[in-house]
Design brief:
3-stranded mixed β-sheet, 2 domains, 10-stranded mixed β-sheet, Alkaline Phosphatase, subunit A, 18 helices, binds 2-acetamido-2-deoxy-beta-D-glucopyranose, alpha/beta, about 15% strand, globular, about 30% helix, about 525 residues, binds zinc ion
Amino acid sequence: MKTFYCCLSLLLIYGICHDSLAKEPPTEEELELKQHPRLVSSRDFAALDEELETRFWHDKAQSILADKLSHHKALNENRAKNIILFLGDGMSVHTIAATRAHLGDSNKQVYFEKFPYVGLSKTYAIDERTPDSASTATAYLSGVKGNYGTIGVNAEVPRRDCLAATNTSTHTQSIAQWAQEAGKWAGLVTTARVTHASPAGVYAHTAERDWEDDQTIEKHGCSAELNTDIARQLVEGSVGKDLRVILGGGRAKFRDQTKHDEEGILGERSDGRDLIEDWKNEKTERGQRGEYVWSLKGLSQLDLSKTDYLLGLFDASHCPYHGDRQRSHLEYAEPSLSDMTEAALKVLSRSEEGYFLFVESGRIDMAHHATLAHKALEDTQEFANAIELARDLTNEEDTLIVVTSDHSHTMSINGYPYRRQNIYETAPNLADDELPFTILSYANGPGFKQTYNEQIGRLDLSHVNTENVDFEFQATVPLSSETHGGEDVAVFASGPKEHLFSGNYEQSTIPALMAHAANIGPFAEDKLKN
Ligand SMILES: *[C@@H]1O[C@H](CO)[C@@H](O)[C@H](O)[C@H]1NC(C)=O
Ligand SMILES: [Zn+2]
């Protein structure tokens, strides 16, 4: 009771200061009504008949309960021969919930939400509350938290320090290395550049995520002799050169600035090297069949059952957003995330000892940074498609699939949208300034400029097509790139030892759980006994 009165008086004080001293404080009843206003229901809304009945909800709960009881009765204690880690970059819990609406109704399930066990991962970096994709990749791939902007090194290494990361005692080992040491194959797939922060966590050690090519290292005043750029680590490093599958974007990081690539785009290196040629030669020297492709056509013409090593770089930089890929018919030129995942599994499933595969949907994050919520949700939908395909192509008895995100974003679902309202519209209720506001909105970002004008104030969005895929959603604070969010992200698991993934834990626990399920690396059963 005490706290209730305390809160109430705080609210009242706030109300008085906020409005004006002359106004009467709102009554308790008025406050209640403001918090939960009476809503006008949508004219075209028709309830599903079944949802009106108590019986329907009890049946639904009953079937979920039965599922849970059967999972508890027979825990999947198998050993994971294969592990697939799916990473939705920047895929906050809000992003997943909004994707249900994107799929048509709040009662939809995004495919991986069906996985039997869900946990929450704490994402902070050693030096920052809100992390980036580099420090988080170190955490969920190698089990160690590092500093913001650093990859595959512990927190002894400050970001962009020219020397600290050259001491290998700072290097962390990724689960890809543990898998390789156990005789498993390893691979990576991403819609970002294969040298970008998240995939780099599989194979690289660096004080600076932007050191994807040698030129950038020199530009930052460090030595490209002392520090090996990320592209070179992918081709020459001990984990990188043994990766069986590398699929994504980022060709320019592999070629010199004077050389055009297959699509006429110049490279970004300054050391004169063609790392794609070097990659092919290294495989030939080992007597292995290494195939390099740069288009969907090239990929589809390969005999993957005879490919030992596969390198596919489908864009000079990042692959396109999934929706843009379809709208601009790049679907004939570039593979989708699902296409790449399928190709990767075809190669890796030939390994007798099993495999570790990392699959990243890298551009959910970039769409959020641009407050392009529509594209973020389209990419999340395709991410779910790739996961469904992987679950269908593998067996829950021997293949553990973990789906998570590295960090959150600031998008929220706000206002009181109708049950089946298009999520890209404005909320049915108006703001206090009698103007509409978008349901999806960001705490900060470039969308501010689309929705606010210094002279006029908030712009009237009633005649703006907010459903347009290029509409930048409303943001409270102007910022050229929207920021990440600092709250927890979800972890979904299906397969051997899936039950270990429930609860709330440090993000750096994830590789320990996966490695334990596969009995590899420092978290293998016998290692833990010693
Ligand atoms: C590398 O770091 C370790 C641990 O801090 C230290 O003992 C060692 O002297 C360092 N090596 C070099 C070459 O600086
Ligand atoms: Zn980001």
